[in-house]
Amino acid sequence: MKTPPLLLAAALLFWGRETGMFGLGLALAAAVEASRLIAGRLELTRDNQNRIADLCSAVFALAAAYTYATADSADAARLMLLRAPLFFAPLLAAQAYGASGGIDAGAFFWTLRRPGARLVLIDVSFPYAGVCLLAAAGANTRSEAFYPSLFALTGWGLWHQRPRWAPAPAAAALLAAAGLLGHFGHRALTALQPAVEQKALDIAYGLAVGRKDVFQSRTAIGSIGELKRSGRILLRLRSPEGRRPPALLRNAAYDVYKGRDWLAGSSFTELPGRSAEGTWELAPPAAKARTLAMDALIPGGEGPLALPAGTFRIEGLPAETLKRSRLGAVVVQGGPGAAELALSLGPGPSPASEPSPADLAVPPPLTATLARTARELHLKKDRPVEAMAAVSRFFEDGFRYSLRQTPGPVGADPLEDFLTRTKAGHCEHFATAATLLLRSAGIPARYATGFAVLEFSSLENAWVVRQRHAHAWTQAYVGGAWTDLDATPGSWSDAESADAPAWQPAADLGSWLRERLRRALRADSVRRGAMWGLAAVGLYLLWRLRGGLGELRARAERGGGPERPGADSELYRVEAELGRRGLGRRPEETVPAWARRAAGAEPRAARLGELARLHERHRFDPVGLGPEERQALRDGAAEILAELERR
Prior knowledge:
20 helices, 16% strand, 8-stranded antiparallel β-sheet
């Protein structure tokens, strides 16, 4: 399928506008239109086209490896999609400057490059226009003109490819109906997407814990079935002093329990720092500080950071802004997808707001149960530190950790059922219950989420934090500071480890290799070497292409000798004769397209299409023509020339 004139240029302009690369899209569109004017005057051989295809594949593979190693997986896929028109532009040029009007299928399939393989031509112009549209759709921004532009470009291409027997009004009506259905369908899908995403998080809780919402936490209390957690490594921690890192890394805190959700206010303050250097000050420096190296994934370059208590400085985080919520969560905006951070820690807690009435609130449906449990534990008679210890013993001795939840009595509150009947749950149960129990005893408390540091990897010589190490605990206000209380029984880490799949070691090895590659590619010397190496490969391929790029198509001399395969084709004599009669081949036309046009205008050249097919095989098919077919090309050309001379 050939694209109509100017459609490729319009698709490139659309891609450039939607992706913020309008200048680049304009340059490519101009190059495409320029190739229409000079295509056919330069020609590339089949081997040269294959080399260009190999270059595109090599550049795409190298770019994919680099992008995947330096960005989050989802971001890497999106970035590769956005840049796809750049990677495959040389392939479009190879078709434009070739003489056959297409790309040999061997450029895409190595098995078709074997000696004697039949020539199969593929027109890449229409697929390339589709790549431009897909790349434009991969951009994060959506203007009001996006859908109308997409529909106009798609409709333009489909209209050009409609069957000639189809009535034009019917085809136009079908296109209009498809456009309307697509408009309402995309509006409905846009409205449905948030609900589907939230439902997916509810079903597969914990798979997206790296993007924790600092305003709302879905506790999964009351969810039926087994929680599935991923073993993907999110963080790596190394202590230069060789000490064990802090056991808990907090990324959010909440003070309002409503229904089965924890909520927090949206008040933020910007933190001071030097964004270009990546240094941020979270609090005044501590006298007795320690350092901690953290390799962190930051999906999309935005979201809360999982930090240990007492962090007062972050280095190695180039970002637009760093903000801290009222409850102490630190959120990055406009940062990298992955970063190697240097954290400075003090012995004290992280800064957070003073207690408020919300930190003592207990939901009415649970007031009686919580008050009774608090009396049994004598929490109000104890000092805050002793009360925290009593709560920890209460859950350690009489409860068990479980990722699988069974249905409770109809109408019963899941948290009350956990405290009085099942006495089994996951960390959200224990953290919520401990927070509300301390509040019942008059001790301000908050619900905190983040990760537990549990596993040391001898392969990486570092502590690794996986998605399944996502955790929840309690923060109690004791002695003028917020203190962590992890009420979940210690057996929870063993239960999580037992849930690891058998292929976890292989996945860890792949993750380690990827991390090593990421570190290597961040080095300036390696990046410079890669650029020089890529430039050398490009120059080598250009040198190999010099013969095809330097040949002018001199039609008058084509029949003079067999310097190129098929240069002795008799069709060139027919082409020259028809050219004298005003039916010459246009610069942008392929031989088959010219043959169809000339045969329609000159009845005496009706066999021209058949001869064009033989000519193409004589020129480009490695097998060539058999003796009978070669003679048919000679006789057919002689017959047409004789008919033309008898006018």
